[in-house]
Amino acid sequence: MIESIAQATISKPIQIVFDYLSKLEIQTEYNSSVKKSEKILEPSAQYGLPQYKIEIDLGIFSMKEIYMVTESKSPTLLKAKCLGSNIQFEDVYELEEVTKDLTSLKITDRMELKGLLRWSEPLAHPILKTQMQENLNRLKKNLENH
After folding, report:
1. How far apart are the C-alpha atoms of 78 and 23, rounded to whole Å?
2. How many CB atoms lie within 10 A of CB 141?
3. Burial, 41: exposed, middle or buried (Cβ in 10 Å; 0-12, 13-18, 19+)?
4. pTM
5. pLDDT tens-digit profile of 83-135?
């Protein structure tokens, strides 16, 4: 299993940051791995929360899967996961209000590659960690420039 953590302080109120993160269909604006994200109107039968069809390109392979919100506690916590045939991952977004106009954001990604891809985990980890921080930097810039 690969676990990556990225953190940033964003110069926006916590509710604005949470609302932006909750729109998972706009991940393509800041997440370089997500090529397409489309909200499925029906909530997840298992969790009663939204699901998204996503296309992801991780360099070593591409996939089209369902990405589902599993927990949402506005404005402090958002969890979503993907249970694909070659990969499983969960993203946890933890938000904390530093001041009225300053939010601390911590993103934890836990990924498990399956089959022969599992052997690439040691090589993939540093790449994914760097990419995750770059994605967070774009997210921060997008929020702070609007």
Report:
1. 11
2. 12
3. exposed
4. 0.91
5. 988 889 999 999 999 999 999 999 999 999 888 778 878 878 888 899 999 99
